[in-house]
């Protein structure tokens, strides 16, 4: 009897490995001083309260990768500032700006995918963006019930976080940012980021139209790595716990018969 109680307790504890502490977290947070180290950028404005764009087509931005770091991307996101389930599917794509080829693309599905920092996310196989290189990111929008805001920008020379956008800094002012590089966001590189857009009929071609305002983006799409997902070790422990409890259940059922 004591052994059975012990096994049940072990199984329950193992299953609890999937609780909040078992998830791989990142230091991203919203706000003017946010460390967006796992995302391309974090809006510093509430996208839900902006005058919503009615554009139908592809919107996003062009950005320049860091000076010394390749960038590994394994999540694509679509704006979800209210946290409500998405009404429609939204294709999010990354293009190599030099030749227009698609680097990564995925559908952020309608419903309730992972929502983090105001974006709904879908995981993709890891792709590597080359350092010192221009890329475009864009999302298909339909003037529908899914809120993504409108054009946002930083208005003055800055290290990447003074205005409506906090970019993932490389030459920034907070510690640890160089370990999670996404964009060359240091002062003097404002020119290397701008919004892009195109009509719906031209997809999947890279958007050719670029905003004249630098240090800006249409904030429907985003990209990231290391968002909160169950760690493999925790999944294994949880699997062992589930197996223990399942085995005990079968044994009890067999005895009853």
What can you tell me about this protein's structure?
The structure is a single chain. The protein is an alpha+beta fold and 257 residues long. It has one domain. Helix content is 15%, strand content 32%. The protein has two helices and 14 strands, in the order H-E-E-E-E-E-E-E-E-E-E-E-E-E-E-H. The strands form four sheets. A six-stranded antiparallel β-sheet has the order 5-4-8-2-11-12, with no helix packed on it. Strands 6-7-3-14 form a four-stranded antiparallel β-sheet, with no helix packed on it. It is globular and about 40 Å long. The two termini are 19 Å apart.
Q: In short, what is this structure?
A:
The protein is an alpha+beta fold. It has helices spanning 2-15, 232-256; strands at residues 41-43, 56-64, 71-79, 90-96, 102-108, 114-116, 119-129, 134-142, 152-153, 165-167, 194-199, 209-214, 216-217, 221-224.
Write the layout of secondary structure elements.
Layout: H1 2-15, E1 41-43, E2 56-64, E3 71-79, E4 90-96, E5 102-108, E6 114-116, E7 119-129, E8 134-142, E9 152-153, E10 165-167, E11 194-199, E12 209-214, E13 216-217, E14 221-224, H2 232-256
Antiparallel strand pairs: 1-10, 2-8, 2-11, 3-7, 3-14, 4-5, 4-8, 6-7, 9-13, 11-12
Helix pairs in contact: 1-2
């Amino acid at each position: 009897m004591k052994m059975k109680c012990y096994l049940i307790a072990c199984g329950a504890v193992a299953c609890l490995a999937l609780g909040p502490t078992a998830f791989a977290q990142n230091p991203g947070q919203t706000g003017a001083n946010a460390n967006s180290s796992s995302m391309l950028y974090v809006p510093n404005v509430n996208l839900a309260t902006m005058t919503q764009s009615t554009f139908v087509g592809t919107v996003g931005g062009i950005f320049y990768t860091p000076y010394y770091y390749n960038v590994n991307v394994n999540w694509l996101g679509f704006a979800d500032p209210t946290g409500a389930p998405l009404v429609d599917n939204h294709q999010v794509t990354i293009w190599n700006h030099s030749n227009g080829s698609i680097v990564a693309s995925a559908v952020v599905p309608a419903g309730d995918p992972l929502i983090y920092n105001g974006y709904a996310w879908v995981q993709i196989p890891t792709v590597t963006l080359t350092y010192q290189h221009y890329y475009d990111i864009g999302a298909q929008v339909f003037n529908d019930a899914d809120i993504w805001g409108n054009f946002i920008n930083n208005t003055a020379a800055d290290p990447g976080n003074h205005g409506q956008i906090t970019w993932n800094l490389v030459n920034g002012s907070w510690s640890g940012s160089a370990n999670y590089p996404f964009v060359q966001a240091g002062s003097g590189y404002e020119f290397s980021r701008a919004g892009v857009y195109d009509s719906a009929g031209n997809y999947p071609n890279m958007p050719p139209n670029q905003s004249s305002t630098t240090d800006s983006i249409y904030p429907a799409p985003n990209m990231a790595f290391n968002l909160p997902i169950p760690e493999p070790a925790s999944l294994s422990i949880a699997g062992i716990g589930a197996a223990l409890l399942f085995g005990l259940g079968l044994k009890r059922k067999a005895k009853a018969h």
